[in-house]
Fold this protein.
Amino acid sequence: MKRSKVMTQASAFVVITVVVGLIYATVLQTYRTEVNAPPIQTHDAIAEGSERDAVPSTSDSIDLTNRLIPFVMFLDTEGCPLQSPDGSNEERPQVQKSVLEYVNKNGENRVTGKLQPNMIMTVIVEKTSSPTTYFVAAGRPLEEVENLEANLIKKIFRAWVVCMVILGINWVLTLKPSST
């Protein structure tokens, strides 16, 4: 009799843990999908324009100080930006060479990584046929999503702990011998 009660409690523990994990994974995927939408839309519009040789001037700037707004970079054949953040010549974000090699082979690459120190971004890079702009990269900083994920982990953990406490109380109450 005791063994079946332990098995029931263990099964409930596993089921609750799996359900809470699935909820976390689903919400996390929703956050990541939503953050990718603006860079995809921006990228598609800009890439279409660069195919028609509607290229930016090198004086255009990228504002990476606002960590919520999507950005676009036009890169030369070496992957160096044709414009710099805030119009200055310092702190130019760099796309990794391996990403550019993949784009050269496949035409497009979607990655999440660091273009700036302490700033994780989602970036879409595409090869163009423009003579002045070799790559178009559109992206968005993930700071807000990282904050949402941290809060989500805390909420999910609290919910899991509450469920485990309820299971523990139930287990203790069912182990007491009945007085009848």
User: Anything to note?
Assistant: Residues 101 and 109 are 10 Å apart (CA to CA). The beta strands are 61-62, 71-75, 84-85, 108-116, 119-127, 135-141. Confidence is low (pLDDT under 50) at residues 53-61, 85-90.
